[in-house]
Automatic annotation (TrEMBL):
Phylogenetic placement of the source organism: Bacteria, Pseudomonadati, Pseudomonadota, Gammaproteobacteria, Moraxellales
Main location: membrane
Domain OmpA-like residues, every copy: 100-217
Entry protein name: OmpA-like domain-containing protein
GO CC terms, sorted: cell outer membrane
Protein's organism: Acinetobacter bouvetii DSM 14964 = CIP 107468
Entry annotated with the keyword Membrane: yes
């Protein structure tokens, strides 16, 4: 199984190609989920720059990131995926493997948030507690939380709402013991739908939060 690992050296062009105006500034750079290498580095680089806020050299390193394949790391992510599948059984949360090798959790809006709200539904806390438990077992993973909406409304409404939802999940994970230096939250609005927005059921699927778990080195 493919896995992504943070490297201390990288081609600068990869970082530049991953920079987009998303409103998510990490280590002096902005990142978007479409730039896989940049996101992996953001997860670890964010903690690096936070922990060394006064060191420009460290901040430069936070921007110098890359993606490589790692066998041991693949085993690590395999184990996380297996455990999360067991924990999420029957909760409505889908656990899969993303094309980039990260472990992905899809949390539909029907169980996470009310319409136009960013407050986590009380009955979803138990599920998030299980996720937090697995993520807090070690410090070997970087975590990207991404919020999405359906296509109702426009970006001026949807992007802040999706960002607020992602931040709510990220903040809750942190409150349960997952280090904030490992977590990045971003809102993508109505981008990347996983179902048709032409039906209520499809729009409900698109109103979701995704968690991507990357192995870091």
């Amino acid at each position: 199984m493919r896995a992504l690992v943070i490297s201390s050296a990288v081609v600068g062009a990869l970082v530049l190609s991953g920079c987009q105006s998303t409103g998510n500034n990490i280590g002096g750079m902005e990142y978007d989920k479409s730039a896989i290498g940049a996101l992996v580095g953001a997860a670890a680089g964010y903690g690096l720059s936070r922990g060394n806020a006064n060191s420009s050299a460290q901040n430069n390193r936070a921007a110098a990131i890359g993606a490589v394949l790692g066998g041991a790391t693949g085993v690590y992510l395999d184990n996380k995926e297996k455990k999360l599948r067991q924990q999420m059984a029957g909760t409505g949360v889908e656990v899969n493997r993303n094309p980039d090798g990260s472990v992905g959790l899809i949390m539909p809006g029907s169980i996470t948030f009310d319409t136009n709200k960013s407050n986590i539904k009380p009955n979803f806390y138990a599920t998030l507690n299980k996720v937090a438990q697995t993520l807090a077992e070690d410090n070997k993973s970087g975590i990207l939380v991404t919020g999405y909406t359906d296509n109702t409304g426009n970006d001026s409404i949807n992007i802040p709402l999706s960002q607020a939802r992602a931040q709510s999940v990220a903040s809750y994970l942190a409150a349960q013991g997952v280090s904030t230096t490992r977590i990045n939250a971003q809102g993508q609005g109505s981008a990347n739908p996983i179902a048709s927005n032409s039906t209520p059921a499809g729009r409900e699927q698109n109103r979701r939060v995704e968690i991507s778990i990357y192995a870091i080195q």
